[in-house]
Amino acid sequence: MNFKSLFILLISLSFLSYDAHSQLLRKIKRAASQGVSRAVEKTVEKEVEKATQRQLEKTFRNLYGDLGENTEGDTTGQGGSSNGTTYDFSKVMGSINMNVDTESEYSFTGLAVIEIKSTNKKGKEEDPVNFNSFLTDNSEYYGMEFIDPEGKNDSEKSIIIMDHKNNATVILVENEEEKSSMAFGMDYGGMMDNYPVDNDGNSLGNGTFEKTGNTKEILGYTCEEYRMESEDSEGTYWISKEPVEGLEGFWSKNSPLITKKMKEQNSSYFTSFPDGNIMEMYFTDNDEGVSSQMKIIKIDTNQPRSFELADYPNPMKAN
Question: What Pfam families would the database entry show (predicted)?
């Protein structure tokens, strides 16, 4: 699995359509209030699972192309990317279930505001995506909150928590009228291990990942510049010399999504990758003609947040 695919996969896992989940939760709650039978609830569960799969498929399709065909036109479920790398999406979906344990409360110590901008192959800038990445010293879970860049829907909040201890994704939705939640199981480590490595066992193929010697300050953190170049892509990364307190759990090589197997198969890359956090990233896919940039634009280490799941009823669970 190459570095580009790894980074994009981490991002794509974070950006399931929370608006679609919000609509589903409202529909389920209305159905539950009407006293639907358990048989109907089972049907609803299946529909939610199907909808979750469709949202995941849509995310992966937008990033990698048609999941139904590989480079040889096979329609067996092996998806393909533009560089010929294949992956078995059925293994990804096989790791999802709707019956999952969660923690009763998730607490965070602060937040980092992250901005992602991208330009498509026609040179048009896409709408920016902003979200809060919650800070925590607890490596067993990671959380983020989506932000409306224009501030039009401040009353509506969507929070996604990746619970690595329970292999669960928790989605919290709130607005002026109600709070609700949904949780489903997903073995992130298993998903990542199901992705094949490149044939030569090198995560960067014939590319390079090197420190340039340039430094600059970002939000009070001294950062070093790294350049990545390969046959089909190039990128610039500004990485803090020291880990940012509370942020090292996800935006670094210590992310729980990066498994021991992946580190062993890509030892040369992970040995050279620094211990800090990615503070800025500028990436260009030369084959696709698209580019993206990610910036941490604010860090507040003294803005605690706690989410008690009792405050967010899950319509999928029986009372």
Answer: DUF4412
